[in-house]
Amino acid sequence: MKTMTCKQLGGSCDEEFHATTFDEIEKQSKQHGMEMLLQGDQTHLDPMHKMKNLMTSPEKIREWFNSERKEFDAL
Q1: Which of 44, 51, 57, 72 has minimal CB crowding within 10 Å?
Q2: The organism sits in which domain of life (predicted)?
Q3: Phi and psi (nearest 5°) for 54?
């Protein structure tokens, strides 16, 4: 079982996600982001906008995922 925080994944808080695969961590992070968005949490909005911009470029979002996956694998 590995642990990553919202901040490690580009977010803004110390919420921890625990999983055995990066895909599971990514899913938990995405759910957390949606919850924060629904709550109107301002500290999460800037990181969400940055992620939204990354998603407009398939190459940039792929680079981001590969980087985060490597960090997860190194844990």
Answers
A1: 57
A2: Bacteria
A3: -60, -40
Helix (H, G, I), strand (E, B) or coil at 62: helix
Q: Which residues pair with 4 in a beta bridge?
A: 17
Both tokens assigned to 5: 């925080």
What is the end-to-end Cα distance of the chain in Å, rounded?
Answer: 10
How far is Cα 40 from Cα 17, in angstroms, rounded to an integer? 21
Give start and end residues of each alpha helix (H) in the chain. Answer: 22-39, 42-54, 58-74
| 18 phi/psi in degrees, rounded to 5 | -125, 130
Range of weakest confidence among 14-18, 44-48, 69-73: 44-48
Q: How many CA atoms lie within 13 A of 55 on its CB side?
A: 6
Task: Give the tens place of pLDDT for each residue, 50-68.
Answer: 888 888 999 999 999 999 9
